[in-house]
Amino acid sequence: MKKKLPRGTGLAGALIVLIIAASLISPHFLNPINILNVLRQVALYGILGIGMTFVILTKGIDLSVGSIVALVGVTGAVLMEQGMPIPLMVLICIAIGALVGCVNGFGISFFRIPAFIMTLGCMVMVRGFALMIADGGTVNPGKLADSFFVLGGGYILGVPTPIYVFAIVCIIAAVVLSLTPFGRAIYAVGSNEEAARLSGINVPLVIFSVYIICGVLAALSGLIFLSRLSVGDPNSGLGLELEAITIAVIGGTSLFGGEGTVLGTMGGAMVLAIIANILNLAGVSPFSQQVVKGAIIVLAVLLEAGRKARR
């Protein structure tokens, strides 16, 4: 009888192979500064990936996260330009992410609109709001307050701050998914919605909640981008929804719902960040990088579909 390898073995093996390959391709890969840059990328995209993991676990998808990043960026920049206190600005931006999540969740859970259609509509609408607020250009709030700049561009004990934020998000997400009734309900809804309903789980409320979580984490990511770039750009975040989906799927989250872990998503974020770093170090053009990333998405989905079909 064949012995099954522990879950995540393939991902861990892929990470080791990628690190070895990156070290051979470029001697700069293992440079401490480059490693910190890779980890910063892991944090920026990983936060979005965690939010997407919650949604995909319920068999859903959220295409609006990239637009939320853009809307939060320009809104935060405008509010800072007008002199609003940083804590209030942060709360408003997080509330914007939660509001978009509410709209998505309401349409999907209570009106049974397919997640792809609902979030696609929100993606376009939210991007439009971002362009309106910024009047099609960029918003420069001037010199950022040190307390805000540290969120995306600063360091604590020599480690980029976004890494700490990502670690906190991962710990909270892992506790919610593994140790709470809400987490178990998410897995149950994704595995079999009808069975979950018959067992007393409020399915619409669970689905509604995961889109709010995804929206809030997208807003947090938008604040980190704004802090790092020091400018609100309505065209930022383009394609981030695909990055988030890829991270979750590479990390083992099933597009068919009910399977996935926070640890896997962390690994998926590392895989994508290392590949992007290898391509940069190898001097591959940004256009060619899009081709490679697209191929990774297709490959990840095909592998997932094949794994599902073998069951």
Question: In a nutshell, what does this entry contain?
Answer:
The chain is an all-alpha fold and 311 residues long.
Q: What about the largest sheet?
A: 2 strands, antiparallel
Low-confidence stretches: none
Secondary structure tally, helices: 13
N-end to C-end Cα span: 17 Å
| Number of strand elements | 2
Report the mean per-residue pLDDT as an integer: 88
Quickly give the structural class: mainly alpha
Helix content: over 70%
General form: globular
Radius of gyration: 19 Å
> Which percent range describes the beta-strand content?
under 5%
Following the backbone from N to C, one meets helices and strands in this order, namely HHHHHHEEHHHHHHH
- Strand order in space, largest sheet: 1-2
What can you tell me about this protein's structure?
- Helix 3 packs parallel to helix 5, helix 3 packs across helix 10 and helix 7 packs across helix 8.
- The radius of gyration is 19 Å and the shape is globular.
- The chain has 311 residues and is mainly alpha-helical.
- Strands 1-2 form a two-stranded antiparallel ribbon.
- The mean pLDDT is 88.
- The longest helix is centred in the last third of the chain and has 27 residues.
- 45% of the residues are buried.
Name the descriptors.
single chain; 311 residues; mainly alpha; two-stranded antiparallel sheet
